[in-house]
Each structure stands twice: as C-alpha cells, then as structure tokens.
C-alpha cells in the first residue's frame, strides 16, 4: 500500500511519548543536529501534557496543537520481567497506562484533526514466536507472539490493523516502524522493569561501586541473541520515515542480521565500556525470553542503502558515559 501525502508547507509535528528514550533522541536530532527544516514546529508531549489513555484529554491536546504530522511513541513499555508480570496491563485494563487505549485515542484524534501522516512504533518482539528467520515485515500476523509478552504484542499488532483501516476507509497515510531493541541516553535503567541492555549497564555500575560485592549477576543464560539499535540512529531514521517513506505497510528499522549479538556478548561489551573489573555470573534460574528474533533490514536497505549505523561499542560507550554522568537523575 503506497501513499504520497499531499501536504504542502511546513509541518507541525506532534511527538507523543516525547519525554522517553526514543522521544528524547528525536528531540536531540531535531534540536541539536539540525533535523528540523525551516518553518517547522515540533511539539514533544509527556504524560504531564495529556494522559493519552483518556479520550477527551487526547482530543484536547490534538485540538490545541493542530498537528499536520504525528510521531506516536507513547506506550507502556518494559523489559521481559515486567511483561511477564503484567500482560493484561500491557494490553488493556486497570487505571494504569496501557496500550490499546493509548493507540486508539491517538490514531482517532489524529484522524479527527486531519493529520496527514502518523508514524507509530511497533517492535520486533511482537512477531510470531514460531517463525522462520530472518523475520520480515510481512510476518507480523502469522502466528501467536511469545507468551512472555502477548499483551504488548497484540496491542501493537492492532496498530497495523488500524493503519490499514484508516487508509482503506479514509486514504490516510498512517504507518508504523518496527525497531529492534533500542538503547541510549534517557533509557529506563531499572533492573527489575527495564530492557536488557540498560539493566546490564545499571548492574555493572552497581557491582563496581564500593557498596556492593564485586560480582555482577546476569539474569538468564546469556545465550539469547538480539539486534540493538542506538536511539539516535533510530531517531534519524524516524525523521526519514516521517518525511519520505511512502508506504502504509510497516518497515523494520534495524542493524543487519550479521550485527546480532548474544546477551553474553552484550554483557562483555558493557563490562568493557564501564571498565568493570569484577566477576560476571549467570543466574540460569531466571527466564531467557525468546531465544532470538533476528530481523531483516532488507526493506530499509532498499530505500536507504547508504545509511550508516553507529558502531555498537561506540554507542554503548556513549550510553554508559551518559548513565554515569547522570546517575542521580536517570530513570532507574
Ligand atoms: N525501548 C525499546 O527497546 C523499544 C523497542 C521497540 C519499540 N519500542 C517502542 O518505542 C516507543 C518509545 O519507547 P521508549 O523506550 O522511548 O519508552 P519510554 O522511555 O518508556 O517512554 C514512554 C513514553 O510514553 C509516555 N507515556 C506513557 N504512558 C502515557 C500516557 N498514558 N499518556 C501519555 N504519555 C504516556 C511517557 O511519558 P512520561 O515520560 O511522562 O512518563 C514517555 O514519554 C514505544 O512505543 C515502544 O513500544 C521501544
């Protein structure tokens, strides 16, 4: 499904989830790297501006800003262990943040105020658990997701369903990107609830501090494999999708298959980046999650053959340096 938007004139871009890991990276690219074009207006929302679970608050914030374009990042997000505990909340329930309400409110409010393009954010962890590799964009709905995060996965998959519906019935170019594991400054470094890489960084940091024994315990066997994307690379790609990607069908934003690393290799890289000198042990009584979800970036490469990703070790070093420098204020 291809669509060329007919918007002329400068964009007014509303970014939901603008205070999170990916939102802060987009802010950086827009404000510090000259990512915004002349005349454009960029508005970054946090949950303090509107609770997007609430339909009226969502409508009000869209009416107030009258965006022409939207990057939709806001979501209840978490790592393996938080997902395993709260599958229902990740789908739809309770007074907490949850994803189906947020997505439905944002897409409908965007449609109501005439937003010409929305780029929402899916994730490679929503793909079927039993699949062939590499995973590509056509496989999203091919089978059940991994049982550890079925709530999050089905909620995200429904964004793709809605995007197709808004295109079919209203000709809207509402699309989605599918990043692999994201990391970078402003991540959630919670050991319990965060993603694997920020959790590893936080643990290594604590293990080398004088207050703790000099052993870092890593949850799981260390054998699962992941592709990691630096938040700033993802932000640069988001801007390209917003401006130039013409399809309603989603696109995987990932480093190549050859850049996949095991959790053990990632942990070793963290140890190196932080200069950690102690022992590293693996607690195999903890869950590993999905063994791998190797994604193909062939579609991205067809559009952008020359895009250069920041080397993993460099990006990790920058992230560790940021965490150490901002330890007191970092989310953890
Ligand atoms: N992190 C990853 O590895 C990863 C991988 C693939 C895809 N993604 C997707 O990328 C997007 C951004 O993720 P992230 O890692 O940047 O998440 P994050 O750091 O946890 O940030 C979440 C953002 O959503 C906002 N938010 C949450 N609930 C809200 C609500 N009810 N109303 C309004 N705003 C709300 C938060 O606002 P406050 O700051 O005010 O709380 C924050 O700005 C998400 O859609 C996520 O599913 C992330």
TrEMBL record:
GO molecular function: GDP-L-fucose synthase activity; isomerase activity
Protein name per the record: GDP-L-fucose synthase
Stretches assigned to the NAD-dependent epimerase/dehydratase domain: 13-252
Family membership: Belongs to the NAD(P)-dependent epimerase/dehydratase family. Fucose synthase subfamily.
Gene3D superfamilies reported in the protein's UniProt record: NAD(P)-binding Rossmann-like Domain (3.40.50.720), UDP-galactose 4-epimerase, domain 1 (3.90.25.10)
Species whose genome carries this gene: Sphaeramia orbicularis
SUPFAM superfamilies reported for this sequence: NAD(P)-binding Rossmann-fold domains (SSF51735)
Role, per record: Catalyzes the two-step NADP-dependent conversion of GDP-4-dehydro-6-deoxy-D-mannose to GDP-fucose, involving an epimerase and a reductase reaction.
Keywords: Isomerase, NADP, Oxidoreductase
Pfam families, sorted: Epimerase
GO biological process, one term: 'de novo' GDP-L-fucose biosynthetic process
EC number: 1.1.1.271
PANTHER family associated with the record: GDP-L-FUCOSE SYNTHASE
Metabolic or biological pathway, per its Swiss-Prot or TrEMBL entry: Nucleotide-sugar biosynthesis; GDP-L-fucose biosynthesis via de novo pathway; GDP-L-fucose from GDP-alpha-D-mannose: step 2/2
Domain of life: Eukaryota
Gene transcribed to yield this protein: tsta3
């Amino acid at each position: 499904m291809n669509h060329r938007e007919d918007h002329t004139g400068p964009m007014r871009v509303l970014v939901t989830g603008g205070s999170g890991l990916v939102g802060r990276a987009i802010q950086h690219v827009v404000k510090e790297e000259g990512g915004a074009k002349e005349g454009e207006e960029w508005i970054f929302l946090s949950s303090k501006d509107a609770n997007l679970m609430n339909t009226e608050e969502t409508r009000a914030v869209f009416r107030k800003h009258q965006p022409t374009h939207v990057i939709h990042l806001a979501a209840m997000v978490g790592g393996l262990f938080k997902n395993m505990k709260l599958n229902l909340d990740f789908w739809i329930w309770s007074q907490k943040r949850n994803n189906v309400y947020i997505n439905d409110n944002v897409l409908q409010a965007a449609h109501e105020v005439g937003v010409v393009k929305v780029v929402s954010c899916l994730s490679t962890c929503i793909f079927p658990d039993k699949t062939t590799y590499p995973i590509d964009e056509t496989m999203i709905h091919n089978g059940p997701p991994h049982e550890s995060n079925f709530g999050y996965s089905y909620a995200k998959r429904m964004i793709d369903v809605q995007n197709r519906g808004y295109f079919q019935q209203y000709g809207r170019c509402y699309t989605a990107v599918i990043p692999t594991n994201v990391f970078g400054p402003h991540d959630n470094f919670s050991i319990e609830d965060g993603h694997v890489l920020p959790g590893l960084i936080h643990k290594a940091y604590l293990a080398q501090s004088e207050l703790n024994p000099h052993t870092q315990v890593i949850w799981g066997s260390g054998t699962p494999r992941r592709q990691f994307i630096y938040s700033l690379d993802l932000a640069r790609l988001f801007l390209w999708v917003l401006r130039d990607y013409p399809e309603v069908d989603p696109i995987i934003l990932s480093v190549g298959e050859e850049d996949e690393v095991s959790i053990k290799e990632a942990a070793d890289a963290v140890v190196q980046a932080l200069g950690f000198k102690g022992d590293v042990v693996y607690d195999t009584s903890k869950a590993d999650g999905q063994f791998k979800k190797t994604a193909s970036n062939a579609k991205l490469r067809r559009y952008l053959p020359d895009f250069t990703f920041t080397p993993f070790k460099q990006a990790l070093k920058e992230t560790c340096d940021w965490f150490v420098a901002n330890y007191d204020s970092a989310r953890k």
